[in-house]
């Protein structure tokens, strides 16, 4: 009698060829908190912090729909340095803003609340976040940590491992913030290539889950244009118009470049059969999938 093979959600998603595009969670603000101890399955919510400070940070984040992520350097290096926190904001014009601070006591994290009420500093390099939250999902550790190591070796000052970012089955997942770009299905080699191209302002459709300032059908439309016409800068394309008819969308994608063509993208959605979508969750559920069915160039 043989033991049942262990289930890995990322392996299952690849075998099904689950589409990546349109799977980036919506959001424009990230709160990062460096925490070098073990990460609980529910991340920030599970930390043994001062309840008053924790409540303040959580309420301020909730008011702005900000995502709170715990971060650490790969290998948990540099323990002698003060722990850091950051507030990252995405702006549609590309003038992204960041505020960084340090904390020794739990109460120092109240600085995050103040930072959420200020514009932040423009012009800083982006932050590269690699989901390596093994206590949340095994695939995030198995696939995320090798990617964290490869990226950290190349860009040690930009790269942090982080807690759950959504879409475990697309591990390894990488976010470039505050650019608001999700990449998935990465390994060590492809992650270095994807981030290198991103930092050169060339976003490729390969491995792109989406832009977090767009909704799923819009993410798919931009990914389809990138796949058809080649890589482009993060802010090269703009969603000019979106209309919906039941399970179909018509999305007009334009360029910030003068005299560039207009792209009218047709997107259709459907639900998948019930499946086990994460390693930890044994229950099955269906997912909504968005797919581009046509692109008309005007």
Please give a handful of descriptors for the protein shown.
single chain; 298 residues; alpha+beta; Glutaredoxin; 10-stranded mixed β-sheet; 4-stranded antiparallel β-sheet; 6 helices; 14 strands; 23% helix; globular
Question: Can you describe this structure?
Answer:
The chain has 298 residues and is an alpha+beta fold. A ten-stranded mixed sheet has the order 5-4-3-1-2-7-6-8-9-10. Helix 4 (138-154) crosses helix 5. The protein has helices spanning 9-16, 51-63, 111-116, 138-154, 188-199, 216-229, and strands spanning 29-34, 67-72, 83-89, 97-103, 121-122, 127-131, 159-162, 174-177, 181-183, 208-211, 237-245, 248-255, 263-271, 288-297. It has a domain at 9-214: Glutaredoxin (3-Layer(aba) Sandwich).
Strands, helices and their partners?
Layout: H1 9-16, E1 29-34, H2 51-63, E2 67-72, E3 83-89, E4 97-103, H3 111-116, E5 121-122, E6 127-131, H4 138-154, E7 159-162, E8 174-177, E9 181-183, H5 188-199, E10 208-211, H6 216-229, E11 237-245, E12 248-255, E13 263-271, E14 288-297
Parallel strand pairs: 1-2, 6-7
Antiparallel strand pairs: 1-3, 2-7, 3-4, 4-5, 6-8, 8-9, 9-10, 11-12, 12-13, 13-14
Helix pairs in contact: 4-5
